Amino acid sequence: MKKICIIGAGHAFKFQYQALKDLGYDILVCDINQEKIKDYPNGVTDYRKIPDDYKLVLISTPPNTHYEIIKYLAKQNKQIICEKPLVISLKELYELEENNYQFYNILHFSFGDEIEWFINSKYKNEKPLHIKVHINDPYIENNHIKEEQICLNGSYLDETINPLSALKRIYKKDIFYRKVTKFMYEDDKYDYASISKFQMENIEIDALVKWNDKNDRSKYIDLYFEDYTIRLDSINRSVINLTTNEILYKNEEERMYKHYINAIKDFEKVQNNEKESLKLNKEILRGA
Questions:
Q1: Is residue 261 assigned to a domain?
Q2: Are 131 and 242 found together in one domain?
Q3: Cα–Cα nearest to 229, from 210, 216, 248
Q4: Are 132 and 40 contained in the same domain?
Q5: What is the reported pTM?
Q6: Do 167 and 101 share a structural domain?
Q7: Fewest CB within 10 angstroms: 34, 158, 199, 282, which?
């Protein structure tokens, strides 16, 4: 049986665990909180004590811990899968690159079934004139970022990389950072909203990320073609022709579960994606 250790039993843990279980993995759980691992056999509270026979690890801890964990586990010859963002600064990213550490970076939007459908559709062959990204997670409480989300380092760093990873997977073109404007509450360290611009060849990408609209939870990419507009809707797992209001594709399965199913299958197939992932992380971190 394939063995893997999940490091960090946070909000995505139940989807990670179920997906890996359904794909036939023997799972060890590691978390500094003893309470979170008590229901799982042989759980550990320190990633430095992962048994030698667990050669594969999934890092799902807060982003500001990724660098040290990757550095340690790479030296232990572990195969590393790491959640986004890979690290939180260009300095850390350059050091990973210089040391040639091997890793696989999970970037959620790119593994949605709606993205897979679009890649295999006729629409993939036409280049959009403009792209707009809209993401909203209601992470605000009493006019501040919720305490449990502070570890995500703000809306821009946590969310922007997801839809850009999907666009990179669709069009296989490099994406370049242009500028970002961030919005913060007076006493907060991180941004609750951001408006950023990126470039993919001659196509402008506008990305709006908001954590402050409690009435809306939406995540989508709008592709503006000459005669029509296509929406890739992550939350509703659908592809919609906005010009005709036609639903071109719809999947009812749980989105996060499917993201992990598809991501792990991709990992098993390609084994690494560090070169392309480094490029995308580098452009995101230019605005961090």
A1: no
A2: yes
A3: 248
A4: no
A5: 0.93
A6: no
A7: 34
Report the distance separating Cα 224 and Cα 238, nearest Å. Answer: 17
**On the CB side of 78, how many CA atoms lie within 13 Å of its CA?**
30
- Which among 191, 196, 214 has a CA at the least distance from the CA of 145? 191
82 lies in some domain: yes
Contact by Cβ (8 Å): 171, 164 = no
Contact by Cβ (8 Å): 283, 176: yes
**CATH number for the domain including 188?**
3.30.360.10
241 Cβ contact partners less than 8 Å away, ≥ 6 residues apart:
228, 229, 230, 248
**Is 184 domain-assigned?**
yes
Q: Which residues have C-beta within 8 Å of that of residue 108, sequence separation ≥ 6?
A: 84, 162, 165, 234, 256, 259, 263
**How far, in Å, CA of 144 to CA of 140, rounded?**
5
Of residues 285 and 213, more confidently modeled: 285
Q: What is the mean pLDDT of the chain?
A: 94
* Whether residue 271 has pLDDT greater than 70: no
pLDDT at 109 over 90: no
pLDDT at res. 272: 67
Element (H, E) at 123: none
Distance CA 55, CA 5 (A): 8
Domain residue limits at 243? 109-255+272-285
Q: Are 181 and 194 in contact (CB under 8 A)?
A: yes
